[in-house]
Amino acid sequence: MERGEIFREIEKFGGAVYDHPFEEDAETAVLRHAHTRRWFGVWIRVPKRYFGEGEGGEFCLNVKCPPDLSAALRQNYAAVLPAWHMNKLHWVTLRLHGDLPDGEIAQLLRLSYDMTLPRRQPRPPFG
């Protein structure tokens, strides 16, 4: 799955946006809920040494994931790892050109979006 496909996928969610919040890193994109600004994903370049592969970097997607599902995914797919630069219990890094099918990536992106929705919708202000 490519970057543009990921951004097109989040357009389907309604209320999802992405931005580039790090001045020193214009490539990293944070996927957020527009209303709460809460993160549900990060498009990020991960050093290949994290994968034990030497020099350079590879763009990956970090998403939130329940710990039990995360463990099962890591057992079944080499492309799913504990998250780079995030809480490794609650987030995973998805290698987008590995053995994880695009449909699974889309489902995990949606799951992350759903998991980070506010538990209770805020009331609109008076007026």
UniProtKB/TrEMBL annotation:
GO molecular function annotation: DNA binding
A Pfam family annotated for this UniProt entry: YjbR
Keyword DNA-binding: yes
Keyword line: DNA-binding
Gene3D superfamilies according to UniProt: 3.90.1150.30
PANTHER family reported in the protein's UniProt record: CYTOPLASMIC PROTEIN, CYTOPLASMIC PROTEIN-RELATED
Official protein name in the record: MmcQ/YjbR family DNA-binding protein
